Here is the input.
Amino acid sequence: MSLRLDRASLRIGARHLVRDVTVEAAPARVTALVGPNGAGKSTALRLMAGLWTPTGGRASLDGTDLPRLPRRLLARRISFVPQDTHVDVPFTVRELVTMGRHPHLRRFDDPGPTDAAAVDAAMSRADVAHLADRLVTELSGGERRRAVIARSLATGSNVILLDEPTANLDVDHVIETLTLLRELAAGGATIALALHDLNAVSRWADTVAVLQDGRLRATGPPAEVLDDDLVASVFGVRVERLAASDGRPALVFHRRRAAAG
Amino acid sequence: MTDTEGRPGVGGAAWAALPLLAALLGAAAVAAIAIGSTGIAWGTVVRVLASRALPAGWIDLGGISEAEQVIVWLIRTPRVAVAALVGGALAVAGTQMQGLFRNPLAEPSVIGISQGAALGAVVTFVSGLAAAAVFWLPLFAFAGALAALAAVHAVATRAGRTPVATLLLAGIALGSLSTAVATLLISLSVVNWQVANEVVFWLMGGLDNRTWTHVWMCLPPVAMGAVAARWHTRDLDLLLLGEETAASLGVDVERVRRTMLATAAMLTGAAVAVSGVIGFVGLIVPHMLRLVLGPSHRTLLPAAMLGGALFVIVCDLLARTVHPPTEIRLGIITAACGAPFFLYLLRRQRGGFAAP
Here is the structure.
């Protein structure tokens, strides 16, 4: 499923959080939104999730405007993983993941065998099946993030939006999380994420959209878009590219006007 | 897996809890009817109750005096039934408010909702409406509870978050205001001593002289509230994860919030209409049950209904029997249990839902 923002804007009072942003998240691809703090990444992601309605332009899924989709249908098509996955209620992982079945259940219905099967499949996919009976409050940050991703998968949605999915994770959990997302994309899912780590973006994303002050600066494959001039003008840093063992460049950032390297 | 020590309810225990609570509730009800200034044998209690529940002639009431039948059926049974309804209503209302505010300290009497309902009730007495028709009292109590809950919600909630301190302070201010206005109304109508006595009754909370009229007065709203609560169990679970997550999983957060507020107000109003302000029931009962059953409202809400009924029946039994022949006010008994518990929660948890 293809998720699009077409010249989408969100204005609150006199202030535009995003303005005329056009982004497409396509199936089987990982699309990253990048930009400095306050550039509008999270806002654009929430417009794509249908959590907020654009005040100008369109947000659409396969051509249908998101605000026209019933809320429960939308929840079965698009899932959203917030940046803060902290849960202070001692639900078990299975209970948490089962909540992903909510948009499939009618009032007074309890989850049935179909739901249990979907939950089990989602937990194995996100590698949390062995944590099923653990309390969410006792998981590590990486485990909790995977549990929340499992909840997204349990909805059956094929579009997964994640706000800073690697925030506050140890490096091994960062790799673990991004690998999982790549695998989901390889399976045909549409993945879009807000990410501030340019190295992660250049390594893991197929498409990048660079936002600055709520506007779209550039979009395309990371290798083409994230050139020295753009990074310098958007982030105010100078980039040095080192060859990593896998043949892809690793980015090192320097303050501008530092001694030339 | 045995990693759930913080939550013994994971697995089968949660379901065993409901039949257990129901059995305890039945036993406590029979005991509360049997014990009193005139002791009545358990067997007699059961036979009189059964004779009313079953078709005439099935139960032989031979050997049971007319006086005993009156005490069981017309004096003690309605009182115990009202205690059960009030306890169930307050515990469910408390559970809902805690989910709604994502805060285990939210409780009808703590955040001023019961006082708002009491003010509504007092208005019907002072204006004479209560004497005019029986439905005005619960209706005004509901209106008072709803107004108070809407006001606390409006004052204390910013961007979907309700900080503990703001919630408690808004509740205290509103509760005091409601009580002050109610007291003012007593002072203005002090010429009528009967009214003044009734107002004092509301403000202290108690179940003396409850009749079948009071049972029928609060049964419909409590039943409706219980159904509405059951209707929204999964929504409440999802709201505990935050509004954005709930919305992304298909919950219409604003609509659920309004329905929950109205339901909690209806339950509180129904309870206050027949018993006055009984504090802390909605705090102690859900919290105890959460420790055993976990946070999922699927089992927590029905368990709160049963547990609340059990708790208030036992407290009312204590109120009647601790210091005969005088009755201690029921509100004083629940406050004596509840206030130290509240302070303990405030000290230990700082408003979190986390298991110990």
